[in-house]
Amino acid sequence: MTTTSPTPSSLPIIDISPFFDPHSTPSARYATATALNTACTTYGFFYLTGHGIPESKLNRIISLARQFFSLPLSENNKIKRHHAGGPEGGDGARGYQGMGENVTLGRRDMHEAVDWYREWDHAPREEGSGGKGTYKMLQGPNLWPEEPAELKEVYEAYVEELQGVGMAVVRAMGVALGLGEVGKGAVEGEDEEVFVRATERSFWVMRMIGYPRLEGSPDVVGADDMEAFSCGEHTDYGCVTLLLADPTPGALQVLLKDGKTWLNADPIPGALVVNIGDMIQRWTNGLWMSTKHRVIHKGEGYRVSVPFFFEPGFEARVRPLARCVEKTGGVKKYEECVYGEHLLGKVGGNFYGGEEV
Ligand SMILES: N=C(N)NCCCC[C@H](N)C(=O)O
Ligand SMILES: O=C(O)CCC(=O)C(=O)O
Ligand SMILES: [Fe+2]
């Protein structure tokens, strides 16, 4: 485990606006796609501008997150996640999780969080012993806090906007990979809109995360396990992560291609930090890798971030695209997988005790 301090950030900045503007010129879209290809090939991480969400709205999201985490634990626990299949009617994943409940690489992470997923509230519900019935992992309704009162409305609107941003990014990705248009040389079913179709009913995830500073942090249960990482190194699971974080520098770190240098991904005001997930790696046959990253918050104050994971549909089947197999030496590196199964495998191992699946 290296502890050398990361070099300053130099991640590329991608202006996505040509993929929103119906009047944009082909050359403007081409310029964005080209820059995106370089960013995804070299880093798998970049800053996104031109997404159309005003900075004031982004600041509101951060301040509501901060407000929620500053409430007493008893208040936070009103939306505590409950075990899937348990008597409380939970789905194991949605809701509030306390400090150290999340686990990465077998170690407790030093953060607390609330997770929301695409609604699945009409899922079959079996009668449990507690009378409330029980959901399968990931299938229940979302849990929203009473305080701050406006959080639900503001966050739901934010999810709508971010789905549009995610769509624009995956549309640009199809162009960036040179997948081609239908009827103009594209492989059948694998044209430049392939990611757009796969994410049409995105099984998105939004996390609201709170990170106390690591050094001198309060003595919480199992603190000896949690000294090292705010969030241990990992890749994200799906397509594109659209991360909003407060201005704290030095916390989010990205592993470079050399496999040993960590680069700070410090926030740029108004921009989102974007990274690609495991499904993009599979589709591109490893041409674009889902980059490892981690959080070590030793800076000032309590850090908050709100990543939004724009993902394929739960049932989406993901296999290497013929064009990408060609570009990577002709050998298919991954078997077909179903996104929802990949997700269940990950989420099931994410909690301390691992009693979930
Ligand atoms: N939905 C996403 N991508 N969440 C990322 C969380 C990463 C940490 C997790 N404990 C892990 O080990 O994967
Ligand atoms: O808080 C951050 O900056 C990143 C969090 C993250 O990587 C994740 O939740 O997947
Ligand atoms: Fe992540």
From TrEMBL:
One of its GO terms (molecular function) is oxidoreductase activity. Keywords: Iron, Metal-binding, Oxidoreductase. InterPro entries: DIOX_N, IPNS-like_FE2OG_OXY, IPNS-like_sf, Iron_ascorbate_oxido_reductase, Oxoglu/Fe-dep_dioxygenase_dom. Pfam families: 2OG-FeII_Oxy, DIOX_N. One of its GO terms (biological process) is small molecule biosynthetic process. It comes from the Eukaryota. Residues 208-312 form the Fe2OG dioxygenase domain. Belongs to the iron/ascorbate-dependent oxidoreductase family. This is Clavaminate synthase-like protein. The lineage of its organism: Eukaryota, Fungi, Dikarya, Ascomycota, Pezizomycotina.
